[in-house]
Amino acid sequence: MPEGRFIVLEGLDGSGISTQTELLRTWCERQGIAVYVTKEPSEGPAGGIIKQALQHRLAGLSAESLALLFAADRHDHVTLDVLPALSSGHTVLCDRYYLSSFAYQLIEVPALPWPLNINSKCPRPDLTVYLDVPPETCLERMNSDVWRGSDKLQLYEELGLLKEIRSNFMGAIDTLKRAQQRVEIVGGSREIMTIHKDVQALVAGIVQAARQSTPANPQSSGSQQIAAILEGKSLTG
Ligand code: ADP
Fold first, then answer.
1. How many Å apart are CA 76 and CA 164, to the nearest integer?
2. Whose CA is nearest to atom 19 of ligand 1?
3. Distance 111 CA to ligand 1 centre (A)
4. To 10 degrees, what angle do helices 159-178 and 98-105 make?
5. Which atom of ligand 1 is least distant from the CA of 21?
6. Which of 44, 59, 116, 214 has its CA 20 to 30 A from that of 51?
7. Chain segment 179-216, per-residue pLDDT in tens
8. For residue 237, how far is the Cα from the chain centroid?
9. Closest-CA residue to 94 (of 102, 85, 105)
């Protein structure tokens, strides 16, 4: 059975990741593409601790420990969830992955090679889509009644912080691109279905290419890609 493709959606909170992931899921199902949708932090034990920490329900956890927990959660998530789904031919849609770690954890963990190092065994996505939405717009969306009524974590709601995270995302995207990772920036402040059409076209291209080529091996290529980054430039460089 051909291996599935690994697609990651990224962005600031409120950028529309959940909305676009669900639209993509429906599109895949209609196309007869076997699809598996997942997210980080995961439902695993480390993911549970992370969620408590992000909601300020855990005292005494340093920024470094939180970064390690994210990497541990990612390791379990990849091993137990993502790789089996890819092996069974599913296209995996993942709401956040290591790009988020690089952007969010850089606020408090400035030494960048280290976050890269602790994620060095993560498989490389076949495509990462970054939904680019101005922090001001994200804040407006987060302040809506729909958001307030949801179970979403409300963590980074300060404009200055969101601007810093967006800037970190841009630096991290640049570095991943220089390491030949496929990252596409999609304008996320447009109408929902217009954005979906763009994201859908990107995913369609990846899935079609997969049908015509040899199976990918995300686990080994991921390690190689991160290793290439570590040997080259830092995320900020
Ligand atoms: P995320 O998963 O990135 O945090 P959501 O997909 O939950 O974001 O979207 C946050 C809020 O913004 C939701 O209320 C959603 O309906 C709304 N939203 C998403 N995309 C758009 C868009 N393109 N234009 C306007 N509102 C949007």
1. 29
2. 16
3. 32
4. 130
5. 6
6. 116
7. 899 999 999 999 999 999 999 999 999 998 887 775 55
8. 21
9. 85
* Cβ proximity of 24 and 129 under 8 Å: no
d(CA 187, CA 95): 17
Q: Is the Cβ–Cβ distance between 47 and 77 less than 8 Å? A: yes
pLDDT digits (tens, 9 = 90+) for 66-92: 999 999 999 999 999 999 999 999 999
In this structure, what are the phi and psi dihedrals at residue 122, rounded to the nearest 5 degrees?
-75, 135
What are the structural domains of the chain? 6-230 (3.40.50.300)
CB of 164 within 8 A of CB of 107? yes
Predicted pLDDT of residue 148: 64
Residue 152 to residue 142: CA distance in whole angstroms: 9
Is the alpha carbon torsion for 6, 131, 21, 17 positive or negative?
positive
CA of 19 to the centre of ligand 1 (A): 6
Tokens matching residue 143: 């302040």
What length does the chain have?
A: 237
* Token reading at 234: 């830092």
* pLDDT at residue 183, rounded to an integer: 98
Which ligand 1 atom sits nearest the alpha carbon of residue 192?
Answer: 23
Mean of pLDDT values over 46-63: 90
pLDDT of residue 229 exceeding 90, the answer is: no
